[in-house]
Write a structure and sequence with these properties.
The complex is a heterodimer of chains A (251) and B (268). Helix content of chain A is 33%, strand content 26%. Chain A is of the alpha/beta class and 251 residues long. Chain A has two domains: 152 residues, Rossmann fold; 75 residues, no CATH class. Chain A has a six-stranded mixed beta sheet with strand order 5-6-7-3-8-9, with helices on both faces. A three-stranded antiparallel beta sheet of chain A has the order 2-1-4, covered by helices on one side. A two-stranded antiparallel ribbon of chain A has the order 10-11. In chain A, helix 3 crosses helix 5, helix 3 runs parallel beside helix 6 and helix 6 runs parallel beside helix 7. Chain B is mainly α and 268 residues long. Chain B is built from twelve helices and no strands. The chains are: A alpha/beta (251), B mainly alpha (268). Chains A and B meet through strand 5 and helix 3 of A and helix 7 and helix 8 of B.
């Protein structure tokens, strides 16, 4: 299909001319959910940042929503890890979500009722309508993550990227996030999320990309999250446990 | 006699304008953790205004030029990998101050004016100084209001802002130059060295009282103006240097705010 949300062909990405991740070949279509799986430092975040034009594409061809990453900047929604934004900043949940509309409103025009409605709806969707006025820094990790998700979806992106969305997130928040993500992909949004949680990847993703310095496998979870590809990607961090089960160790 | 002909009246107007200006920009300096960078700017502004005074151009021009060199120098040094931005800033800070002192020493009969550059001389403020301060206050207020969204987004979540198409580097430069403009503008009131306390203390105090940006900004302006007026009054009443009493009062506001906000439940 010509209208892939994301296409990587023989790609190396990195910073300052140095590759962090090589041999990336994948294609993601509208409505599909892709999980980037690998140990810490595998290059998951770098791959996400390369989609946004924030990491260098050193080799190969990248197409994001039919354009180059730089030209697609602002079209893809991005949810950083919840500890990345400055929690000391005096902004309310509502103000954070409104940031997702800045591009649409323009930098200088006043907010319209439609924008305020969209912000309220996005907060409602992630189950935080009652926290709209609370300061971002006073919210729990899971609630912060949901606010950041609301900020991304309020822009109605066709491609949504989430960096470790379930890190430091309570069960209630994780459920709320998963529900929203399923709704979004059901409506045609393409989804990329990085995780080191194989259970999450297995349950949520249509496609899994196994990474560790390079792409080791890509395909449906049933084919990629099996002993052989995992052993290749995780190397010495994969050990054989009792009963023939593979155990992955995070250093 | 015109109201403006009285030096104390001019000084009063100057400290009100400078206090408001410092409070406005101080909020950004505090939230973006630019206090140390601002300190470097204030010290580097010193040789700039000395040179301007020697060659006879407006102090504002010399100060802005020197500040721009430092801003770009810090930006360039901190971009190099493995270079510590704080170390680079610290070196530039003392180098700027040393340069200013050396320049002052080359001018015979100049040392009398040294303290005016360092700690201000608000009672000698003239009409053009006042007009310049008012104009800069207008410009800074417009810039900060107009650019509030990209500045807020960049300050809160740099990566997401860049991903959303915000040119974060450009907005950094806009903010740094605005800070520099303010530093140079408040030199007549509090001097280059004491400018930092008038910029940082009111905003840091306001930050303790509220978690809302609009309230923090309003309070910072009020604290800045109060420090200016109170300091000027103390200076006239007890015959101490105005710049010093303004800086001390601003610090006092911060201390009192810190104690009072510790005594009550935290604000949300």
């Amino acid at each position: 299909m010509g209208d892939a949300a994301l296409r990587y062909a023989g790609v190396s990405v990195g910073y300052h001319g140095r590759p962090v991740l090589t041999h990336v070949d994948l294609e993601l279509r509208a409505g599909q959910r892709l999980a980037l799986v690998g140990p810490n430092g595998a290059g998951k975040s770098t791959l996400i940042r390369s989609v946004l034009g924030l990491a260098q594409v050193l080799d190969g061809a990248v197409t994001v929503l039919g354009r180059s990453p730089a030209a697609a900047r602002g079209l893809a929604g991005y949810v950083p890890q919840n500890d990345v934004p400055d929690a000391g900043f005096p902004v309310s949940a509502r103000q954070v979500v409104l940031m997702g509309r800045y591009r649409r409103i323009g930098w200088w025009r006043p907010t319209r009722p439609a924008d305020r409605r969209a912000v309220a709806e996005a907060l409602d969707r992630v189950g935080l309508a009652d926290r709209a006025g609370h300061r971002f820094g006073t919210l729990s990790g899971g609630q912060r993550q949901r606010v950041l998700l609301a900020r991304a979806i309020v822009a109605e992106p066709r491609l949504l990227l989430l960096d470790e969305p379930f890190n430091g997130v309570d069960a209630v928040s994780q459920e709320a996030i998963v529900r929203v993500l399923r709704d979004l992909t059901g409506a045609g949004t393409a989804l990329v999320l990085s995780t080191h949680d194989l259970t999450v990847a297995r349950e949520l993703a249509d496609l899994v990309c196994l990474l560790n310095g390079r792409q080791w496998a890509v395909g449906p979870p049933a084919e990629t999250l099996t002993a052989e590809p995992l052993r290749r990607a995780y190397g010495g961090q994969a050990i054989d446990g009792p009963g023939g089960r593979l155990v992955l160790i995070e250093p | 006699m015109n109201w403006w002909d009285d030096a104390l009246h001019r000084a009063t107007a100057e400290v009100v304008l400078a206090g408001a200006l410092a409070g406005l920009i101080g909020v950004h300096v505090v939230l973006r953790r630019l206090s140390f960078f601002t300190m470097a700017l204030t010290h580097a502004t010193f040789p700039g205004v000395v040179v301007a005074s020697i060659i006879g151009v407006p102090l504002l021009v010399g100060g802005v030029a020197a500040g721009a060199v430092v801003a770009l120098g810090v930006a360039a040094l901190s971009r190099r990998r493995g270079q510590d931005a704080a170390a680079a800033t610290g070196v530039l800070l003392s180098a700027g101050f040393a340069l200013g002192t050396a320049l002052v020493a080359t001018q015979s009969g100049f040392s009398r004016d040294l303290s005016a550059f360092l700690v201000g001389s608000v009672l000698t403020v003239d009409g053009p100084d006042l007009v310049a301060t008012a104009a800069v206050l207008g410009v800074v207020a417009i810039v900060l209001a107009w650019c509030s969204r990209p500045l807020l987004f960049t300050g809160f979540d740099r990566g997401a802002a860049a991903a959303a198409g915000v040119s974060t580097g450009v907005w950094d430069v806009v903010l740094l130059f605005t800070v520099q403009l303010v530093v140079v503008t408040v030199v007549p009131a509090v001097g280059t060295i004491l400018a930092l306390s008038l910029i940082v203390a009111p905003a840091a105090a306001a930050r303790l009282w509220s978690g809302r940006l609009s309230v923090i900004t309003g309070l910072a302006v009020v604290f800045g103006v109060t420090s200016g007026l109170g300091g000027l009054y103390a200076s006239a009443r007890w015959n101490v240097a105005a710049g010093a009493s303004i800086a001390l009062l601003a610090t006092g506001v911060l201390l009192v705010s810190w104690v009072l906000t510790r005594l009550r439940p935290p604000v949300r």
